[in-house]
Amino acid sequence: RVDPNERRCDIVNGNNLAAAITNWNQTAQCEGGGPDLPDNVFYEWPKNTNRIYVALSQLWVGAEVTDRNGETQWIVDVSDFRSDPVTSESWTFEPIKGYVQPGGRELGIAQSDEPSSWPDFWPDKLSDTQDPGWRGSWNGFFGKNIFNADQEFFYKAGDDNYNRYPNYFPDSTDLTRKGLGIIVETRVMAWTQILIDDAIFLLYAVKNDGTEDLKKVGMTMWLADLVGGDSQDDIPFFDVLEDVAFMTDADGIGTEPFGSDPVGEAAIAFLETPGNAVDRIDNDGDGSTADDCSPQVGECNSPVVSQDMLAGEDPANGVDDNGNGLIDENASHIPFSGELGFSAGVGYADFIDNDVDGEQGGPVVTQEMIAAATPDVWRRWPPNPGSDAISQRNDGSPIVHLIMVEDDDLGLPFKDGIDNDDSCVTPTANYPYLTEPGSPVITQEIVDAAAADPYRRYRVPGTDIILYDVGPEDLGKCYADGVDNDEDGAVDEGIDEGIDEMIDESRADGIDNDGDWNPLQHDSGLDGVPFTGDPGDQDGVPTTGAGTAFPGERNIDVTDIAESDQIGITNAQIFPAGSLNFNTRSDRFLFFTYMIPGEITTER
Within a domain: residue 101? Predict the structure, then answer.
């Protein structure tokens, strides 16, 4: 739970930049952070010169929810400048208790190169059986006592105190908890390495820690430019292809600290944006259309989202409106060229092995399948999903399998939900770490049930999983059931491997999606430190930190940014300084103005 009494302010100055930081998800402005620090230290470069470029950054997290009265509410967490109009209590993010040294505010935020700032123990590491709480050790991004950055700050913040909505309770186990039940794990990092010594890295890991599903979520960064120390002649603009916000000064003349030197530029690059691992779209293009796409890693011959596929789709409701299997496809996914630049578009998961590097022994697309799909509006196979009970979810929506099945798919393997190469028993050479021992196997009863279906389908009881083309040849083979049968953090791995890889990849699926985990370099166990005897240490397979309070090993999930199917920036707004008042603007206004995809302002 949060504790406003543990608010702290500090200064990140581990390289050429300097700025104030807080432990409530705001930087550059830190009123109330500590008596021995100035309230505001705007981003200055070089440090200690008072040459100012950026006056504020702030994280917002918002979601659409349904309260206990069945009414829809929009709740947006902000980092500062908002309070309860009756009690004046904070209605913003606040630090979670236990991640600072309680000895005094002058000790600041927990900082890697200042052990006196560390708490007596780390609350999120108490479950470490080898070293509960990591007392006297640094809680590093890459693991215990790993000092990768020259300067690293760490804290957690939450929204427990945002009690504006009396009928919404994010956590059924604690009805005193309000807000959205969000926990933000934040790291601020600086390196002196010459290629990045003019940059500060802000890492925000946002977690729904409540019991209520948050199905529509937005995250926003609020940035305030002050290039040259004066804002009236600033010219901000946004590069939508590279996800970079630029801040420039019109006349290149700054305030007195700049003297006769010209003012430079500030850039805020979004190196990682939230990912969507359930929409069947390769949002970041890394598995389909990237210039450096490797067939050994991605699905490089996958079809690309077309203009026609946008027909009938609401791009912001999280629903497959037009029934083509994709969710919220929009104009940013299709190929385009013009003033904004060029894009090859992105691929999508058609559940067909387009580069023929996947599981061996599976079924292939036949001429009969192509003929059956041809009359279907989206060339789906089986056609007209949702028209029978087996292909309909409990909510009535269709379960769409293969899409856009055409002549050039003839003979290509496709997903069937069955482990055709028996990798659940013995991993294959191409995918040595993908195996799910303990999975259920195809029985004669399943074969008999599938034989009565025109497409030889079998719906796994209690799930939306359908097995396809089930026959006597599949007897005894493992199949997907949506359960982590070997309790390794991954579900149904080794079944249909190599199909649509790096499309809908996830940093929480327990799988080394991009295949860059190396047993000789990365087999360090759950705490990220080799030879400590912790779970996964030197066991020959990747160990994920997903779903735990630990980093896990390098190059998988938590520590591998490439394993997120990033959606990029979907909303960018430019507005005058001082025009936004949190105490007079509703959360609904904030959500629909600054978080709903589609509104992009590239320049003032």
Answer: yes
In a domain, 19, yes or no: yes
List the beta bridge partners of residue 22: 9
Which amino acid is present at 66?
T
Domain that holds residue 160: 4-112+149-269
Q: What is the DSSP letter of 263?
A: P
Q: pLDDT digit string (tens) for 229-281?
A: 998 899 999 887 788 999 999 999 999 999 999 999 999 999 998 899 999 99
Q: Tokens 């027909």 correspond to what residue?
A: 311
- Which candidate, 88, 86, 66, 91, places its Cα nearest to that of 76? 91
Taking a C-beta distance cutoff of 8 angstroms, is the pair 127, 30 a contact? no
Cα angle 410-413-417, degrees, rounded to a multiple of 5: 135
Strands 151-158 vs 94-95: parallel, antiparallel or unpaired: antiparallel
Does residue 198 belong to any structural domain of this protein?
yes
Count CB neighbours of 375 within 10 A. 9
| Mean of the per-residue pLDDT values of the chain | 93
- Could you read off the pLDDT of 71-87 as tens digits, one per residue? 999 999 999 999 999 99
Residue 383 falls within a domain, yes or no?
Answer: no
What is the DSSP annotation of 44-57? ESSTTTT-EEEEEE
Q: 72: Cβ–Cβ under 8 A, 6 or more apart, which residues?
A: 64, 65, 66
Number of domains in the chain: 1
